[in-house]
Amino acid sequence: MARTKGGRKKRHITRKLIILVVILVLIFIALCFVTPSQAEMTLSSAGEIADLELPAPVEGEQIIRHTGYTLSYNEEAEQASWVAYCLTRDEAYGSEAEREDNFREDRSVRSGSATLDDYRGSGYDRGHMAPAADFKWSAEAMSDTFYLSNMSPQDPSLNRGLWADLEAIVRQMAVDNEKVYIVTGPVLTDGPFKTIGDSRVAVPNQYYKVVLDYTDPDIKAIGFVLPNADCEEDIQSYVRSVDEVEELTGLDFYPALPDDIETVVESSADASKWSFRQFSSSDRDSDYTPGAVSSGSDTRSRLVNAFNTVFYEIKAEVFSTLGLTDLAKSFGLI
Questions:
Q1: Selected catalytic residue, list 128, 136, 171, 220
Q2: Which tens digits make up the pLDDT trace of 216-254?
Q3: I need a surface site. Which of 56, 233, 244, 287 has the fewest CB within 10 A?
Q4: 12 is annotated as an active-site residue
Q5: Residues 240 and 121 placed together within one structural domain of the fold
Q6: How far is CA 164 from CA 17, 29, 112, 134, 144, in A?
Q7: Which domain range does residue 159 map to?
Q8: Is the domain of 275 the same as that of 132?
Q9: Chain segment 131-179, per-residue pLDDT in tens
């Protein structure tokens, strides 16, 4: 009888050990997928890169620089194919300039930009590509955002709805990450398009926005594509990788990035790495000082990086022992 009870107890303990081992294996496998690979762990900024926000030039389009932003003007569509700028944490909190809504033609466009008459009575908003609220740090910069070369015909339900929300989210991204590099524009590859006005300004079917955080320790990028209509889904439903936005638009974003970094950050969009909270100037800390970065955020980042480093060594050793290193690399696990 004693041996029977002892055998049952031993089997019970064995089952518990097996269950524990299975749980640990499952946790290990899950962590392999959610922790970064070697390529992702070695991402680090190589200092300041001039004009990092600028996409590659588009043949036949005029590059125009205004205060705080740069655009590439597409004459056929009578609007910019891309508008690019860098937004810092300090600039997002800028409060120098008041919005004046001084919409006007852009005399810098050699062929002539769209006009106010083109939009009048069209039923479409003059939708900013570089939003005025991102340029409160300078009266001149904010005024320059009202050139019609920075506008595109947007459905009012988009311009005043989810698009405005996205702009506020990107401002918060600048606050969270100290600095971001933003490119925005209409998708001009899925025509033919409806047009408005005597200038025949194309009415895009979709708009894109891509955002790059090139600040250590967590370099990353994310893209968005929204229809030119009332958007009923949550903003995360419109998340795309930068590679996907490039394929859709035919544009080459962030070509100044080192090739190894560009390949990694543009290939996927991990929404979990970004906050989707909307910016509010009232959230500014009373003890905020220009250039300051949250110590709590830095501490969390250091802890996460330390864990990732340790776990990478563990999983690399496990896969090596099992002879599965090549297979693990093919799945991006190490």
A1: 128
A2: 888 999 999 999 999 989 999 999 999 999 999 999 999
A3: 287
A4: no
A5: yes
A6: 54, 40, 28, 12, 19
A7: 62-283
A8: yes
A9: 999 999 999 999 999 999 999 999 999 999 999 999 999 999 999 999 9
